[in-house]
Write a structure and sequence with these properties.
Number of strands of chain B: 4
Number of domains of chain B: 2
Largest interface: A-B, 49 and 52 residues
CATH topology of the largest domain in chain B: Arc Repressor Mutant, subunit A
Distance between the termini of chain A: 43 Å
Largest sheet of chain A: 4 strands, antiparallel
Oligomer: heterodimer
Strand order of the largest sheet of chain A: 1-3-4-2
Radius of gyration of chain B: 20 Å
Radius of gyration of chain A: 28 Å
Number of domains of chain A: 2
Chain lengths: 255, 174
């Protein structure tokens, strides 16, 4: 394919990566694609040649399909909208309406409004982008880790962790829940679960994460998910005193 | 009083608010505190040192000067931190200007599903749940948080340019 066929991302502030990601990022949604086409063709937004734009839009859809990009429903919705507007433009105005002196609305109006609205918020997003750039160039003192008063905490060692996990497994085996069906749990899913839980709670007990597990494999997946989050510095583990229950907290984001 | 204020702003984790300073100086009148603070900020920033006192999220905080970021990064051996994606920024812009706003309303403006972007914003605490809209289905209402103000160096929401400015810009672009 010619590179000219591929929309470039010159109106995107970030375009470090070459290849498919750019195309996806540039055309984040159908409105973005339409805005791109309008700008590229220097089209007057108040008078969009709907037939031409529809054709080009469908061409891009085809390119994306050829690239095996999974198109979300909104892309097809927009295609349908464009075709609908195009057909309405072809139909002459109803004589009854005309006789009544009522002018039927330009079928493009709503789309134009949507495009302007979208461009407006794209501009606002770019303003935020610039502000973020500036803020990223600034540091303040990292927040001191102050826990509740008087709460002395002990860092958790790998051995504490393994011991705690061992206990979880032991408890599980004592309960001997019947394994019903093979359950697919991935570490990614579990990581997402932990993140969600920590959105709501500041601190969670290590053992609570394992309460729902139905199989040993499930336990291991949860354990690995926690380890991964520790490695990513998203969570930290501590005890109120040595050999105590292990607590899990979210690492405070230091700007 | 100014020296103490400077020290407090230095040790604070969050931007220091005027009310907090009032607690520290109960005998002083609010006006005197405000004046002292303004004087401190002015003289502190006028000396063009490595630090700045800036008004962020309704309080004052001490930060490094943006112009020194390259050398600071060399020292810290860090790279610019993960920025929000364009999708997240657009979603955030909609939330910032239209709050309180539901996911469906965001979808209508952006013309695409925004749940992933919203999830990121919730995880990064830029967006908070404000409640539920009293309509059928009682959808969740979202709004920006204090973290949002801090992240973008805003003192309050009225620091943002008005939507009309962006609309005018959009009119010129298209």
């Amino acid at each position: 394919m010619e590179s000219g066929d591929i929309p470039n991302s010159d109106f995107q502030p970030s375009s470090e990566d070459a290849g498919i990601t750019i195309r996806l990022e540039a055309f984040e949604g159908p409105l973005d694609l339409l805005l791109h086409l309008i700008k590229k063709e220097e089209i007057d937004i108040c008078n969009i040649p709907i037939a031409r734009i529809t054709e080009q839009y469908l061409d891009y859809l085809q390119i994306m399909k050829d690239l095996n990009i999974n198109l979300a429903g909104e892309w097809l919705m927009m295609a349908a909208t464009l075709i609908y507007i195009k057909s309405r433009m072809l139909v002459p105005q109803e004589p009854a309406l005309e006789a009544a002196g009522e002018e039927s609305q330009d079928p493009r109006n709503e789309l134009v409004y949507q495009l302007l609205e979208h461009q407006k918020f794209k501009n606002a997003a770019e303003m935020l982008y610039t502000r973020e750039e500036v803020e990223n160039a600034v540091w303040n003192k990292p927040p001191s880790e102050v826990l509740e008063e008087g709460a002395d905490v002990v860092a958790v060692t790998l051995f504490d962790l393994l011991r705690a996990f061992h206990e979880v497994v032991k408890r599980f085996e004592e309960q001997r829940v019947l394994e019903v069906a093979h359950e697919e749990v991935t570490i990614e899913q579990k990581i997402a679960d932990v993140r969600k839980l920590l959105l709501v709670h500041d601190t969670v007990l290590f053992s609570t994460f394992f309460a729902e597990a139905r199989s040993k494999r499930h336990l291991i997946v949860i354990f690995l998910a926690l380890l991964e989050l520790v490695r990513l510095h998203e969570i930290w583990l501590y005890q109120k005193k040595a050999f105590d229950e292990i607590h899990i907290s979210k690492v405070k984001e230091s700007d | 009083m100014q020296a103490v204020m400077e020290a407090i702003i230095y040790v604070a984790d969050d931007p220091v608010k005027l009310e907090q300073l009032r607690e520290v100086f109960p005998e002083e009148s609010p006006q005197a505190i405000q004046q002292a603070l303004e004087g401190l900020v002015e003289s502190f920033n006028a000396r063009s040192g490595g630090m700045l006192i800036r008004e962020v999220a309704g309080g004052w905080r001490m930060t490094t000067r943006p112009e020194h970021h390259e050398q600071i990064r060399v020292y810290l051996k860090t790279r610019p931190s993960a920025k929000l994606s364009m999708a997240a920024l657009e979603t955030l812009a909609v939330i910032a200007y239209k709050q309180p706003v539901t996911l469906a309303e965001i979808l209508a403006i952006r013309g695409k599903k925004s749940s992933t972007a919203l999830q990121t914003l919730l995880e990064r605490k830029m967006v908070a749940i404000l409640g539920r809209k009293q309509v059928v289905g009682r959808p969740i209402l979202y709004g920006t948080s204090k973290e949002f103000l801090i992240h973008f160096g805003l003192n309050n929401l009225s620091d943002l340019p008005t939507l009309e400015e962006f609309a005018q810009m959009a009119g010129e672009q298209l």
